[in-house]
Amino acid sequence: MRTPLHVLTAGTTAAALIAVTSCGIVEEEPSGPEVTASAPESASASPEPPENAATPVEDLLEQQGVSAGHPLAVAAGEQILAEGGNAVDAAIATAFAISVVEPYASGIGGGGSVIIAGPEGEPIFYDYREVVNNDGEIPDSGAGVPGFVAGMGQLHEDYGTMEWSELLAPAQELADDGFEVSEFLGVRMSQPDAAAAISDLEHYAPGGEILQAGETLVQEDLAQTLQTLSQNGWQDFYTGGLAESLASAAEGIDAESLADYEVVRTSPVAGEFGEFEVVSAAPGLPGPALIQMLQIAEAQGVAQMEPDSAEYIDTLSRAWLEAESTVYNDLGDPAFVDVPVDRLTDREANAQIELSAQALGAPSAAAEDAPNTTHISVVDSDGLTVSMTNTIMFFWGSGEMVDGYFLNNHLSRFEAIDTPANQPEPGRRTVTWSTPTMVLDGEGQPLLAIGSPGGHQILNILSTVLVQWGLQGATLEEAIEAPRFRAASDGETLYLEDTVSEEVISELEDMGWQTEIWPVEQASFGSVQPVLIDYETGQLHSTDDPRREGAHAVIP
C-alpha cells in the first residue's frame, strides 16, 4: 500500500490521522502548518489540496462524468461541471441535490465518506460520519452529531473552485420549486418504515394522504435551511442559528457537541486485486473487509469460474462470510482501537484462508436490514476522481425532522454491531457498511470510481461487480446487471435476487445452501454508481443500474 507523503513524519510507521474541525485543521503530526478553515465566501483564491494528495492534471481527459442515484441529482453535478467546476465541486452539488430528491437516504442530518484521487499524488479519504455526543450517551432515536455539512464544507475548502453558494443553488431550487415524485420514491413513501416519518408532515402527506408518484413534493423548510447555509457558510450548522435550532429540537445533540465536531482526513485502505489496486473506505468502514473478500475469492480461483454459476456464487459467498467476520470482530474507530489493516489486506495471507460455510458469530440480518445510503461518482477533465457514499442510516433515518431534513439514526450500529471494538464513547464513529471504493491502474491512476447503497449487502454488491469486471472479463454493463446475492451469517441461507436461474438455485441447494428470494420492493441489492476512465482515448464510460433510478451523464 502506498502511504501519502502528507501523513508521514520522521519515524512514522503508519498513517497519522488528520482531524478537520469546523474551526480549523489540527494535525496530529508534529510538523506541518495549521490551516484555518472559514466559511467560503469567494473562490477568488483557489484552496490548495493536502500536500501530494489527489492532484489533477490539466485537460487530461476529453470528457467529464457523474453518476448518482437520481437523474435530477446527476443534472446538478452535470451543471457544475459544465460551468467549469471540478469533480469535487460537482460532487458537493450532487450530494446536496440528492438529499432533496432522495430525502429518505442521505442529507444534512446525516453523514458520509469520500475517496478523492487524481492522476498524480495519492488518494485521500475523508470521514464525515456521525459521532457520539460529548456526554457519550446514545439517545433513543439513535441520532449522532451529523457530519454531512462539515464534510461538504471541508471538501470545498480543500478542493473547491466555485463559490459555495453556487454549489448549493441546484438543491435549493429543487427544494423550493419542488419536483415530481418518482416511482421509486413513491414506493419508499408507501413502505411501513415511512409511516412514522412522513404521515404527519403536510408537505409529504397533504390532508393526511401521502403523495403518490407523479405528484409534486415541495420542501420549503429544507429550502430555507439550504438558503441559510448558502448565505452564512457551512459553519452555521455547527456554531450558528442552524446549530441552535438543531440542539433545541433533537435529543442527544447539544451545542457543544456540534461545535466540537471533527471531520477525519486520512489514507484509504489499499490492496492488490488482479492487475489492479483497490482503494476503499478506511475503518471503521469495511474497506479492509472488501479487499479481503476480493483477495480470498481470487485465491480460490474465482477468475476461472463461469459468471453467475453456482460454483461462483458459492465461492464468493464463503469469501463474504470471512469478510463479514472481519467486520464484526476486527473493525472499529481507529481513533479508539487498533485495527489490523495490514493483515486484513495482505494478499498472501488472505490466499491461505480456508473457506468454511459455518456460522462465524455475526448476527443474522433479515431482508429488511436497511438497504440504505446513496452513492455518487464523479470524474472531471483533469482526472480528479470522487467516490462518495452518504447516508442517514435507515430509510428515513430516525424519522425525526428538523428544519426540513431528516435526522440520522446512525448510532444504532453500535447495538447492531456490538463487539469489543465497537463501543460508544464521546466523539466515536460506529462500524457500518458504507464503502466508497476506487480501482487504480498500474500507474496508480484512478481507473474506476464505484459504490452502492445497500446496507449489509454493499460488500457483496461491489464484489460481484469487481470480480466479474476485473477478473472474469465482463463488461461494466454485464457485471452490474448480473444477479446479486448474500449469504446469511449462519452460513446456511443464501438471499438471492429473482434473476438467479432455477438451475443455479437447484445446484446451490445441492451444495447444502437454503435459498430465499428477496422481494424487489425491498431494494436490498443496491444501485451501483460507476464511472470508468480510459486514459488512452480520454473517454469516460458509465452505465445505469436497473435496480433503482440511478442515472449518469458523460459530457465534453
UniProtKB/TrEMBL annotation:
InterPro entries: GGT_bact, GGT_ssub_C, Ntn_hydrolases_N. SUPFAM superfamilies: N-terminal nucleophile aminohydrolases (Ntn hydrolases). Belongs to the gamma-glutamyltransferase family. It comes from Nesterenkonia flava. Coiled coil: none annotated. The keyword S-adenosyl-L-methionine does not apply. Residues 33-54 have a biased composition (Low complexity). Residues 29-54 are annotated as: Disordered. Its EC number is 2.3.2.2. GO terms for molecular function: leukotriene C4 gamma-glutamyl transferase activity. PROSITE patterns: PROKAR_LIPOPROTEIN (PS51257). PANTHER family: GLUTATHIONE HYDROLASE (PTHR43199), GLUTATHIONE HYDROLASE PROENZYME (PTHR43199:SF1). It is an enzyme of class 2 (transferase). Keywords: Acyltransferase, Hydrolase, Transferase, Zymogen. It comes from the Bacteria. This is Gamma-glutamyltransferase.
